[in-house]
Amino acid sequence: MNMQHSEFKDLKLPIIGGKDCKSATKTPKHEESFKIGQRISVKALHTPCHTQDSICWLMEDGDEKVVFTGDTLFIGGCGRFFEGTPAEMHTALNKTLAALPDETKVYPGHEYTKQNVKFLTTVLQTEPVKNLQKFAENNQQTQGKFTIGDEKQYNVFMRVDDPAVQKATGKTDPVDVMGKLREMKNQM
Which residue, among 94, 88, 76, 96, has the nearest Cα to 151 in the 3D structure? Predict the structure, then answer.
């Protein structure tokens, strides 16, 4: 079926998205939920930083949980701070997304894992980082293969309290560590 944009107008369906999305007709509040069909529950998680209207979408279908993270969280990395601050990204990653159940599968908006692993290995030499590196070398796509719990193990942007990460940045305050990590990544 090939429907034209004008055909959708008659359906009176909301177009749900961030406040700055020009086609959006509804922007849910932070942690507001809605349903897709009878089974899929969707929760909006506002994560301003890459853009100020960034929203990650937590979806649950029975016991299965997934989060679509757009340009906020990537496998082994995070988005640039185009419209935000290190404090905002710290909150987005280490408070909002880190609070999700560890088994929540991560679906980022882009496949940057190989690039992110190159950076991770300059900051942290741990078994989880090495395992991610091996997986990235042998697979083109990583979306949905890793979880929030995995990210907490190897993603340095979610490990700002780790002494090894702090040592690599020369900072100890979590927000300062976040800012320095992004600066270091930007220079790669």
Answer: 76
